[in-house]
Design goal:
Layout lengths: L1 H11 L4 E7 L10 H13 L3 E7 L3 H10 L2 E7 L8 H10 L2 E5 L7 H14 L3 H12 L12 H10 L6 H6 L3
Parallel strand pairs: 1-2, 2-3, 3-4
């Protein structure tokens, strides 16, 4: 872990990483010794190499275990309008003041969900990904979006999603 943090510091040209997420194994593996890994990251934080700690790809139980060891500022898991298994964890994090950072925020749509997204997008004059991002922002105040993009045009569309105002009817149609 130390080598990874040091490599990131070098490649980014910084003296401190603002946040490092401890990425756990595949979902459902709750026997991974995250406490030992967090202890290592806490040592790196004490040295000033890391400012904050987060966890990624974790269950609600693992988040509770991590919080018993360290101050956790964010959770990064798969979550989007079609993959809502983490609904309870999003709420738990919001209640605790922990940021929730969904990965694949616009991926994995099921046909029925995509139909509703298309309907709402058409009414708003927006794209389906913009509506999916707006839904996440409306879902909870602790959600922080970092949608990946490969073009400036998509980046601009992603930013514009923050200005979309979904109505209660839109949210109901999207299954919120």
């Amino acid at each position: 872990m130390r080598r990874g943090v040091e490599a990131n510091l070098r490649s980014l040209g910084v003296d401190q990483l603002d946040v490092v997420n401890l990425r756990m194994g595949d979902r459902g593996h709750t026997d991974t010794p995250l406490e030992a890994a967090l202890e290592t990251l806490m040592s790196l934080r004490a040295e000033g190499l890391i400012r904050h700690l987060g966890v990624s790809n974790v269950t609600q139980t693992q988040v509770a275990r991590a919080r018993a060891v360290a101050d956790i500022v964010c959770v990064q898991n798969l979550y989007n309008i079609a993959a809502r298994d983490d609904d309870p964890l999003v709420d738990t994090c919001a209640h605790a003041g922990i940021a929730y950072v969904p990965f694949f925020p616009v991926g994995g749509f099921q046909p029925l969900t995509a139909e509703h997204l298309t309907t709402v997008a058409g009414r708003l004059g927006a794209t389906v990904p913009q509506v999916a991002l707006a839904w996440l922002l409306a879902r909870s105040p602790n959600i922080v979006l970092i949608p990946g993009t490969s073009s400036l045009a998509h980046l601009e569309q992603n930013i514009a999603a923050g200005q979309l105002q979904l109505t209660d009817d839109d949210l109901a149609q999207l299954g919120a």
